[in-house]
Amino acid sequence: MKIYLDTANLDEIRELADLIDGVTTNPSLVAKEGRPFWDLLAEICRLVPGPVSAEVAALDVEGMVRQARELAKVADNVVIKIPMGLAGVRATKRLAAEGISTNVTLVFSPTQALLAAKAGATYVSPFVGRIDDRAGDGMELVAQILEIYSNYGFATQLIVASVRHVRHVVEAALLGAPIATVPYRVVRQLFDHPLTDLGIERFLADWKRAAG
Ligand code: E4P
Fold this sequence. Notes:
Helices cover 53% and strands 17% of the residues. By secondary structure, it is of the alpha/beta class. Strands 1-2-3-4-5-6-7-8 form an eight-stranded parallel β-barrel, surrounded by seven helices. Helix 5 (86-97) links the parallel strand 4 (78-83) and strand 5. Bound molecules: erythose-4-phosphate.
């Protein structure tokens, strides 16, 4: 499973750039950084060789397509995040015809994922954490989308998004999701285990004793 970093923070991206497969941003993550958007996006694309998702702010088809074309000029690895909906699906279809990669975001149902794939989306992002926050089952949605995509051989890749904790990453991998986009705090936790720390501590202490 590929792991993307869900952040627009340059320090976080620099620290993990060699180990992650891509980055996803959204307007809220960009706003937190307090830097000019276009410079920030260009810098992220320079640091990360993999795909970098950047979202359009328009709500109409023409506006989305116009903004997408501008964003796509920033770097070859930019992927255009398009909010799900009637306009979003139309814009996705237009962009697919132009060869511009898209990530249909804010997906909360299997039919939304089906329509995004039919429109030629490169990626689709179901938000598992936001579903779980409302006592739903985000991973059930992931399983349904994977089954639908497999039924019809869609090339659209599913990105498990709105990841809240390590368990979400484990469940995504168990379901065979191709990608999960994970916040920095959770990515760091993937590397750690208290028994690993304890084991290292003991080995070092024993090594010191053995070495006299
Ligand atoms: C995905 O691409 C989004 O940036 C992200 O996962 C949203 O997660 P949130 O629900 O934590 O805002």
